[in-house]
Each structure stands twice: as C-alpha cells, then as structure tokens.
Amino acid sequence: MASETTDLEQAAPVIERAAQAITGATCVLFDFDGPICGLFAEHRAHDIADRLIAWLARRGLAVRMPQEDRQDPHAVLRAIGDSHPDSGLVRELEAALTDEELRAARTAAPTPHVDDLIREWSARGTPLAIATNNSPRAAHAYLSQRGLAPCFDRHVYGRTADLDRLKPDPDCLNRALRALDADPAKSLMIGDTPSDLEAAGRAGVAFLGYAKDARRVTRLREAGAEAVVGSLGEVLELIGGSAG
C-alpha cells in the first residue's frame, strides 16, 4: 500500500512537464474507457470476453490465445480479425461486442473530475473529441446520459470494421483532427494505455497519461510517457477550474 501511495504521489508533480501542452491546447482528444469513464464497472470486461468466446464456440470456432488476452474482449475481436480477415464473422462479432458495450455504458462509472474538466474546456471554446477503440455508439450513449454530448458536438471517433485501424494505429485520432481542422502540434491526447501513447506519438499529438493506480502509472512510464497524473482534478485546477 505504501508503495502504491508513493508511486501516485510521484505521478502528480509530473503534470508540470505537460503544463504548457495542457494550458495551450487548442484541441483536446480523450480516450473513452478510462479517462472518461470506467465502461466495464458493472458489466465486467472478462465476462464480456467469455460471452464472445462462447458465441464463437457455438459456431464451432475455438479461440487460441494467451489466457490473459482471453479476458479482454478487444483482444478476442483482434484475434478473430487476424484469423478471419474481412469476413462476415468479424462483422458479426464486432456487432456483438458493440451490443455489450452499449449495455455497459448504461452503468459505466464516471471518472472523477472529468465531467467538470470537459465542461470547463468546452466553456472556454476548446474543441473536444473522443478517439477510442470502443464503439462510437457506446460513447455517444454514455455522453448523452451524462449531459456531455453538446460539449463534443458529435465528435466521437471509434472502432470501425477495419480492425487494423484500432489504436495504436492513429486512425481515430487523425479522423478527429481532420474533422476539427486541428493542428496536431497544438493538440493534446488524454489516454490511459501504452496504445494511446503510441497513437498520439504517431499522430504528432502531445500526450497526458491518466492512471488511477500505481500499476497503471508504471505501465505508462515504462512505455515512455513523460507526464502521468493520478487525478484529472489536477488538470482541472491547472486550466483554472475547481476540482472541488
């Protein structure tokens, strides 16, 4: 417990390294699951992965992948995309995952301080977008139920049928940047995984890591993230809002 506290305390001052990118951002891109909400707070990701694997088994398909990956629904989808590219099976499985994410969105847990942060940036006229590997339908549904949809003006860029374009490919970031006519060099991405970090780098966008525990802090730092925060309240305070 002491080690975790120390790691998170060390993460907080690092925001100073990203202060200019945060306060000077003319466009902000958010990953969805993590920085915006805990999408699978009640509908657990490993349970969804189990249901997808069972769905495939009923069609006579066995999923061969590491046990750890079998707990990740996106990893299951990628595995089938690799083994059955451009097939109807992939489209059906993606649709099944979208249905699961839509159900999960109804009970997703808001990330602390992010609603206020989004509203503060929006009130200042900063264009906002979501760039995610989740279904854009799930992200839209969640934003609508939280009253945040107007802040994004429908700028949600998520998973498509082309699984090769999932992050770390920067496709969803590039789609957002083009739609907002944003300069990547003046934009900021807030994400919580190494794939977010890599996608931001490939898109030429500054990156701020969000990590709610020491394990995630370590994972982002080992991937090369220079700025990682344990609370988005720090970002809110930095841009002049109140973290309550």
UniProtKB/TrEMBL annotation:
Keyword RNA-binding assigned to the entry: answer is no
Transmembrane helix as UniProt keyword: no
In short, the EC number is 3.-.-.-
- This protein's source sits in the domain of life called Bacteria
Q: Which UniProt keywords apply?
A: Hydrolase
Instruction: State any single GO MF term.
Output: hydrolase activity
Q: Which InterPro entries match?
A: HAD-like_hydrolase_sf, HAD-like_sf, HAD-SF_hydro_IA, HAD_sf
Q: Which Pfam families match?
A: Hydrolase (PF00702)
What PANTHER family is this protein classified in?
A: PHOSPHOGLYCOLATE PHOSPHATASE
NCBIfam families named in the record: HAD-SF-IA-v1, HAD-SF-IA-v3
| Official protein name in the record | HAD family hydrolase
